[in-house]
Amino acid sequence: MVLHARPSLQPPQVDFALIRRVSALLGPVLETYFRARVEGLERIPTGRSLMVGVHSGGILPVDALALGRAYYEHFEYQRPLQFLAHQILWRINPRVSRVLEGIGAVLASPKNGQALLEAERTVMVYPGGTFEVFRPFWERNRINWNGHMGYVRLAVRTRTPVVPVPSVGAHEQFIGLTRGVRLNRLIGLHKLLGRVEILPLLWTFPFGPTLAFIPPYIPLPAQVTVECLQPMELHQTAAGRQAFRRMAKGDPEHLLTLHRMVQQHMQRGLESLSRGRIPVLGRLFG
Predict the structure, then answer these.
(1) What pLDDT digit, counting tens, does each position of 112-138 carry?
(2) Which of 5, 48, 121, 134 is geometrically suited to a Cys-Cys bond with 116, CB 3.0 to 4.6 A?
(3) Backbone torsions φ then ψ of 51, nearest 5 degrees
(4) pTM of the entire structure?
C-alpha cells in the first residue's frame, strides 16, 4: 500500500462549512445514542495549545468526535482544531483522506506538529495511538501511552501549554479481549501497515468474538464524558527549563519527568470521571 496523500508541512486550513455539515450529521447520534458530554472547554487557553487525550473506542473514537463537535460549537466555528492522526487514515481512500483533512486531520509527525503550534493552532494528539485505542476492557480506565513522549518534546520546544483531556465511555462500545500483538507479528501485518503492531480480538454486538472490525459491529450505546483539565505549562517547570540545555533532542530524564507529570495528572482526572460509573449506562447519580 502507498499513501494517497501526505499533508503539507505548511499549516493547512480547515473547512468550516464541511465541519458544520459533519457536526449536524453526528450531533443527534452523539447526543442521544451516546449521551455525550464535554466539559471544561473554557479552560483551553487562547493562542496555541496542545491537547493530549486518552485514545479509546477502536475504529469509532466517539470521544474525539464529541470533543471536536463541542469545541467548534463553543468557539462558534471560528477557531480551528487539528488532530495529529495515524498514517493509516491516508491509506483508506483519496476522498476519505480529503474529508479527514478538511475537518482537521494532519499526518502525525514532529514537523507537522511544530508547524501547527507555531501557527498558533490548537492541536489534539493521542500519544497512545493504536496500542491504546484497542486496549483490553479491564484497562478501559487506565492510561497506557506505551512510552510515547514526543508530545512532551513538542510542547517544551514550542513553549506550548498542554491541556490534558481524559474521557470515559468510548471504550465501552465493545469488550476488548486482547491487543493481539503476538498474532500481528506472527502474521507479519506490522510490515504491511507500518507502525500498527496489533491485531485486536474483541467481543462485539451482535457477532461475539471478532477481529478488530471484521465484520462491522454495532457499538453499544455507552454514555461518553470528556473533560478538558487545567493547562500545564511544562516549559515553565524546573525539568522543562533544563530539558534542552545540554542535548538538542532533549534530556531523556527530564522528558520522562514531564511525561509522568502529565500522565499522573490525567490519570487522576480519568479516575474522577469513572468514579461511580456503570459500564455503558454511565454515572446514574450525581
Answers:
(1) 999 999 999 999 999 998 889 889 999
(2) 121
(3) -90, 130
(4) 0.89
